[in-house]
Write a structure and sequence with these properties.
Helix content is 31%, strand content 25%. The protein is built from 11 helices and 21 strands. Strands 1, 2, 8, 9, 10, 11, 20 and 21 form an 8-stranded mixed β-sheet that branches. α1 crosses α11, α2 crosses α11 and α9 crosses α10. The relative contact order is 0.19. Bound molecules: flavin-adenine dinucleotide (FAD). The site of flavin-adenine dinucleotide (FAD) has 42 residues, from α1 and β19.
Length: 401
């Protein structure tokens, strides 16, 4: 059965970015009819529910970028939201550790970047780092005291509950299949009928490029899905580490490296890896979606990216295929973790926008037209940054930016 409805604002995607945007719109237009469409039976089943759960402090991002700005604002906003709504967080801090002398210059560059971003950072000697974390090997480290952890899926579910309790329409199990923008607004075709909206915001994560293309947005990028496998750590004491432990990132690689993360429900994980996913939203190791795979392999940007990063891509693939090799990355900074300690844990898939020339689109990217806005690139730290991102989206949508 199909029906046709109207709404003032339509939002597509019930991840943390779509839900935060819905709440922000609602706070500015309490009387408006706001409809959020999510294809899954529950919110937060994709990136928002499958990530490291880190409230990033904002150490890594290029000064002046949207990531640097929204992440710094996002730490405070996330902690405040969680405190107000009874969601547990822990500001456990993070150590970014150098284990080899060749990493020390990069560590200094990272420290300067954190300072340029106005982020609190402390440089530690190897001995001081080991005093803080006796189970960790380090010849030097950066301490980011304001980094924390949270369960972003819990945050997103709370946002969904607030949205509906304030009169928002949350339509789960409703996939947007296409539509177009007219002089009056946006028409969205869904698996449950057509919706006419005054304005629309698309926060479709791993499907962002497809949504943009189906609505005629002028964009030239493709979402390349990067799979990240994690392991849970067994057989280790509850005080294995007090902080999150990250390696010094390699500037040649787009992601932060395999890190040792404390979880909100206790315990630790290591991960994530970074290899091309065979399906954008399939999480079993064997998941394969021919359309998704063809979309990546037929895109010139993917091959150019691969050519530029052949060595690191080969290393990532080898580590994804061999636990022993994966373990070596972890043992560089935590030698006491052994093969038998690695237990399976849920994986995540990152939506990373890549340009036709093979460039990773590093910053958050929003593309707007007269009546709509597409969130085209919202990778990490977009969960940390979701609340300021939402404010930015609504400013642009309402013409206040
Ligand atoms: C492995 C991994 C580790 C990460 N670690 C961190 C971290 O520690 N800290 C951090 O800040 N960030 C982290 N991130 C990034 C963070 O998870 C994402 O940036 C954030 O969740 C993006 O939220 P989103 O709402 O844009 O996307 P999503 O959570 O993916 O939500 C998009 C939603 O849109 C829906 N949708 C798509 N197409 C349609 C359609 N046609 N119709 C209806 N609905 C549709 C999907 O079902 C989905 O629910 C990590 C990500 C990954 C994958």
């Amino acid at each position: 059965m199909t029906n046709a409805t109207t709404t003032d604002f339509a939002l597509v995607g019930g991840g943390i970015v779509g839900l935060a945007t819905a709440l922000n719109l609602q706070s500015r237009h309490p009387r408006a009819k706001i409809t959020l469409l999510e294809k899954e039976p529950q919110p937060a089943l994709h990136q928002t529910g499958r990530n490291s759960g880190v409230i990033h402090a904002g150490v890594y991002y290029a000064p002046g970028s949207l990531k640097a700005r929204f992440c710094a604002q996002g730490v405070a906003a996330t902690n405040a939201f969680c405190a107000e709504h009874g969601i547990a967080t822990q500001t456990c801090g993070k150590l970014i550790v150098a284990t080899d002398a060749s990493e020390l210059p990069r560590m200094e560059t990272l420290e300067s970047r954190a300072r340029a971003n106005g982020i609190r950072i402390e440089r530690l000697s190897g001995a001081d780092a080991r005093k803080l974390e006796p189970n960790i090997s380090a010849i030097g480290a950066l301490l980011s005291p304001s980094t924390g952890i949270v369960d972003y899926a819990e945050m997103a579910r709370k946002m969904a509950a607030l949205f509906t309790s304030r009169g928002g329409m949350l339509q789960l199990g409703t996939q947007v299949t296409g539509g177009d923008e007219t002089a009056q607004g946006v028409t969205l075709h869904t698996t449950h009928g057509t919706i006419s909206a005054g304005k629309a915001v698309f926060c479709a994560g791993l499907q962002a490029d497809r949504m943009a293309a189906r609505f005629g947005a002028q964009v030239d990028f493709r979402i390349i899905p990067f799979r990240g496998d994690y392991f849970a750590i067994k057989n280790q004491p509850a005080d294995l580490v007090q902080h999150l432990i990250y390696p010094i990132p390699d500037p040649e690689r787009p992601f932060l490296g395999v890190h040792l993360t404390r979880k909100m429900n206790g315990g630790f994980t290591v991960g994530p890896s970074a290899v091309l996913a065979g399906a954008r939203e399939g999480y079993a190791k064997t998941s394969l979606n021919p359309t998704d795979l063809a979309a990546a392999l037929s895109y010139p940007g993917f091959w150019k990216l691969l050519a530029k990063n052949a060595a690191s891509a080969a290393d990532e693939l080898a580590s994804a295929l061999s636990r022993k090799r994966y373990l070596k990355k972890v043992q560089r900074y935590c030698a006491r973790i052994e093969l038998a300690d690695l237990a399976p844990y849920k994986s995540g898939i990152r939506a990373q926008a890549v340009a036709r020339d093979g460039r990773i689109i590093d910053d958050f990217l929003f593309v707007d037209s007269r009546h709509s806005l597409h969130v085209c690139n919202a990778p990490s730290p977009a969960a940390t940054s979701a609340l300021p991102i939402a404010a930015h989206i609504v400013d642009r949508l309402l013409g206040d930016a």
